[in-house]
Amino acid sequence: MVILSKVKASTLMETLVATVLIVIVFILASMILNNLFSNSINNNTQAIETHLNELQYLKQHSQLELPYTANFQNWSIIIETYQENNQSITAFEATNRKTNKTVNFIQNANQ
């Protein structure tokens, strides 16, 4: 007759606790990744910076009439020229209408 040896195994309660812990870890990880991706999408200003560079090029080649206002996707663009210390300075400013984020830069007349 064969003697059956007792095999150590986990109980149902231990299995359920381990499963719940794994699920909690996956939920937290997915929430963190979702937050990172949404922040990277909301803070992406590459398209408006490229458009402002195009407008700067047009201004340098006297193909842009100032003051200039326009809308580009969700951005409001304002370009103005003013005098400071006997120099003509052009201010490029773009404001996102949804997030109120502002991208701006200044160009001197000698650039």
Automatic annotation (TrEMBL):
Keywords: Membrane, Transmembrane, Transmembrane helix
Membrane-spanning intervals of the chain: 12-33
Protein name: Type II secretion system protein
Record lineage: Bacteria, Pseudomonadati, Bacteroidota, Flavobacteriia, Flavobacteriales
